[in-house]
Amino acid sequence: MNYFKTDLASLHADLVAKKISSKELTQATLDNIKATDPKVDAFLNLNEEAALKQAAEIDAQGISADQPLAGIPVALKDNIVTKGMKTTAASKMLENFTPVYDATVTEKLAQAQMITVGKTNMDEFAMGGSTENSAFKTTKNAWDQTKVPGGSSGGSATAVASGQVPAALGSDTGGSIRQPASFNGIVGIKPTYGRVSRWGLIAFGSSLDQIGPLTHGVKDNASVLSAISGHDDHDLTSSTQAVPDFAAELNEATSVKGMRIGLPKEFLAEGVSDDVKAAILAAADTYRKLGATVDEVSLPHNKYGVAAYYIIASSEASSNLQRFDGIRYGYRAQDVQNLEDVYVKSRSEGFGDEVKRRIMLGTFSLSAGFYDAYFLKAAKVRTVIMNDFKAVLKDHDFIMGPVAPTPAFGIGAEIKDPLTMYMNDVLTIPVNLAGLPGLSLPAGFSNNLPVGMQLIGRPFDESTLYKAGYAFEQNTDFHLQVPTLGGQN
Amino acid sequence: MANRINREQVQHVAGLAKLEFTDAQLDAFTPQLDDIIGLFETLSEVDTEGVEATSSVSDQLNVMREDVADNWGQSQALLKNAPDAARGFIKVPAIIDESEDN
């Protein structure tokens, strides 16, 4: 199956017209994953038997025109729980964990009759920006297998970018969908906080986490986001806002004419590579040619985002990860003499280094004598950062800038230096702190590696981001370039 | 290097987090954590006088629901995930230290 030369709408048309059956499509997808995955290591587990059975059932029922995603394969990041299907969060802690329920997004994809073909690799508990923190394997960039795929949703990004699946879900706490999408030359969205239910997403930073789709194109992304969005009684932070049919709003007439776009000067500052800067300035020119106004604006506190985030996210993580205690599920250390040892040894043996670092940072920030200076201060700086965005978005339709300061870096290049790794998230983190939607899409190349552009919008205004992304896609060809992997393109 | 956090403090925090580190791990972690806490301290440059803390960005406030028990009927499936189980219960080591004679 060649997912580079098609999109979800064409796949749907072929399925409805019975040019291909869902079972054939699913089988071809699984065969291709098996052939290509030894090169890129995107998947942790395949769901072969159940996927083929579900596809056959869908074929037997027939696919109607009003089921636009029915019978089409999808992959899920392995921190999204799937009933009866192993879910590990790429941690030794959950190596043998089989959930007894489905995440709300898993259920919604099943209602849309998408076929979950497997679970993708990630940084352990979604902590990291390179997928090198997986307890099981290191995923490779689809464009260059000596480079990282980004992270933490690196498996989902590489699976889409290498043509294994037409769509995948990831999760984004500080850039974990947008940055791997950027590094792999595909489209990824971090929806507005509350747009998508977090029920069944293994919690990392609960006030920051959102699930979102990764796809080849903007319209495909919009289709999947509509399918997974909406209020959920199981997640009381999920919003009751109506969910638009985002993809239906995208057509030949989609335009940015008359829109006002803010380009923050801080987004092109020190640390952002020349090629990335050039790609974003060229994109700004494209938008001007399409009739939009691009103003230089300022997000003066952007640079404090990383510090505030690593306090807040780590504090929330240290609390969320208390549940992994070796008692009810997950890894339990052997040869322990008492209950305290069960806790300490199970956690010390079950968690990897990056997870331990985050738990330590969070526990420190929340501990007696440090709470006011660290956690409370970070929560106030969060308000200041939100106010910066509010001020710019008051009179701009959206903000544009890079996703990451550089293209994909080498495997092994930064893993020993946590602080350098953390600084890669300087342009994505503030968006999570403010709870805003952020769309990542292809906008150029640097030494044959993709460069991504980020569009940031008002709360619950994913529509504008998709329209602006679609208009850009219609007028550029970056998204049409695909990696050469195993000669299938 | 500024000493924002030392080995003893790292060990204290590890105790709070129910983690333990070898000497070699402490040697590696302490300067890393010290660097990151150095980054945290840059927040003192931001004037937050009179600024409210943000703990949630959800647009849903004070959502109430009935407290209704829901029987999943899946205790056997749940127990399969337990590291050790017997007769419908999760097994854990004795709470009293068996290595000591007291």
TrEMBL record, chain B:
Pfam families: GatC (PF02686). It comes from the Bacteria. Gene3D superfamilies: Glu-tRNAGln amidotransferase C subunit, N-terminal domain. Keywords: ATP-binding, Ligase, Nucleotide-binding, Protein biosynthesis. It catalyses: L-glutamyl-tRNA(Gln) + L-glutamine + ATP + H2O = L-glutaminyl-tRNA(Gln) + L-glutamate + ADP + phosphate + H(+); L-aspartyl-tRNA(Asn) + L-glutamine + ATP + H2O = L-asparaginyl-tRNA(Asn) + L-glutamate + ADP + phosphate + 2 H(+). InterPro entries: Asp/Glu-ADT_sf_sub_c (IPR036113), GatC (IPR003837). The keyword Ion transport does not apply. Its EC number is 6.3.5.-. Heterotrimer of A, B and C subunits. Belongs to the GatC family. Allows the formation of correctly charged Asn-tRNA(Asn) or Gln-tRNA(Gln) through the transamidation of misacylated Asp-tRNA(Asn) or Glu-tRNA(Gln) in organisms which lack either or both of asparaginyl-tRNA or glutaminyl-tRNA synthetases. The reaction takes place in the presence of glutamine and ATP through an activated phospho-Asp-tRNA(Asn) or phospho-Glu-tRNA(Gln). This is Aspartyl/glutamyl-tRNA(Asn/Gln) amidotransferase subunit C. It comes from Levilactobacillus tongjiangensis. The gene is gatC.
